[in-house]
Write a structure and sequence with these properties.
By secondary structure, the protein is of the alpha+beta class. The chain folds into two domains: 171 residues, 2-Layer Sandwich (Phosphorylase Kinase, domain 1); 166 residues, Aminoglycoside 3'-phosphotransferase, Chain: A, domain 2 (Alpha-Beta Complex). 37% of the residues lie in helices and 20% in strands. The chain has an eight-stranded antiparallel beta sheet with strand order 3-1-2-4-5-6-8-7, sandwiched between helices. The protein starts with 20 loop residues before the first strand and ends with a helix.
């Protein structure tokens, strides 16, 4: 692996063992941190910009400007350098196999604040395009392996990428999937989100206390006292759980929505939690709504006909708000976010005051 890593911001370089080959790369930064690393022909550079799931209006505008500039070779003020690559390295060979030849690539560097930071590559050569997800640190490798196994077990239960190949070695774990074309859905497509999640409901009933995520919540809040003990025996519909069902982890295709990034995926989850995540996360992280407005949004949507249809199928009618509070506590105590934790806590406090 590359021995020239000087800071966490440069950790992407460790993916490429240094060697005699030189690749011209373009580095796109956001807030001084590497966001995308692009290498290859104009068309591949332009298409590689699509790896960045821009959400805000300004971010989408910037992405579109860069995409057009790269496609037509316009003189953009971007950072450029030569990257030394060992073409005999096993990971480079893996990328070459996925691309069907010497790969053009776009590398999305992931969240630098996230523990277990993962990287996503779009590799191509002519007509072949595949996505490769890779982790270097021990925690990142564990998440990669977890997602790989879950996707293999998921089958055709929901629309998700199909694992095509994988590589595991001491300092790296990666798997390759089909490249899914499409843009992220609008932050406001909550009715469509409820419809997609309803399609993930499985036959039968299960008590909440038997759902793994619910068990983790109970364990995490046992010391402080939990307000949801009386829901333990409530029987709900079993359903597939994504765990990070947000617009930036979804592609809209002609065949419907395809959910990406399943490292938190589980075959059995708490009904409603993925929907609350879809509603709350973009309003906190992208729109910057006040806690009061976020809670008001939930209060408007929960009694809406489309969500009540979902709630009826999921068998959560009458406990929707308490499950929303439980979701917020789960996010704060079990899977604390790397961004927006303070704002999420404020949403929880506001909801708690209004609903309990």
């Amino acid at each position: 692996m590359n021995g020239m890593i000087s800071s966490p911001a440069d950790s992407w370089r460790a993916l490429f063992a240094p060697g005699a080959e030189r690749r011209n790369v373009i580095i796109v930064r956001k807030h001084q941190q590497p966001l995308l690393v692009l290498s290859g022909k104009r068309g591949a550079l332009s298409e590689g910009m699509g790896l960045y799931p821009a959400q805000s209006f300004l971010a989408k505008c910037a992405r579109n400007v860069l995409r057009l500039g790269l496609r037509y070779g316009l003189p953009l003020p971007l950072e450029r350098e030569e990257l030394p690559v060992d073409s005999a390295d096993s990971f480079w060979q893996f990328l070459t196999v996925q691309a069907g030849g010497t790969p053009d690539f776009a590398l999305l560097c992931g969240n630098p604040k996230a523990s277990g930071r993962r990287f996503t590559l779009l590799v191509s050569n002519g007509q072949t395009r595949r996505v490769v997800k890779v982790g270097i640190s021990k925690q990142a490798q564990d998440l990669i392996l977890q997602e790989e196994r879950f996707l293999q077990a998921l089958g055709k239960t929901v629309q998700a990428p199909r694992v095509l190949d994988a590589i595991h070695r001491d300092n790296l774990a990666a798997f390759a999937t089909d490249y899914i074309r499409g843009d992220s859905p609008s932050l406001h497509c909550v009715e469509q989100a409820a419809s997609v999640l309803a399609s993930w409901i499985q036959p039968g009933e299960v008590p909440l206390e038997e759902i793994p995520a619910w068990k983790r919540l109970m364990q995490a809040t046992s010391a402080t006292g939990c307000a949801f003990q009386d829901l333990a025996n409530r029987r709900v519909s079993p359903m597939v759980f994504h765990g990070d069902f947000a617009p930036w982890n979804i592609k809209v295709t002609p065949q419907g929505w395809v959910a990406l990034d399943w490292e938190r995926g589980e075959p059995l989850g708490v009904p409603g939690w993925d929907w609350f995540h879809f509603v709350i996360q973009p309003r906190v992280l992208v729109l910057g709504m006040s806690p009061n407005r976020v809670v008001q949004t939930l209060e408007t949507m929960i009694p809406s006909p489309f969500f009540q249809r979902y709630a009826c199928q999921a068998r959560i009618q009458g406990i929707e708000r308490r499950l929303a509070l439980a979701y917020l506590e789960y996010m704060l105590h079990v899977t604390p976010p790397s961004d927006g934790a303070a704002r999420l806590a404020a949403v929880h406090e506001r909801a708690l005051n209004r609903w309990l």
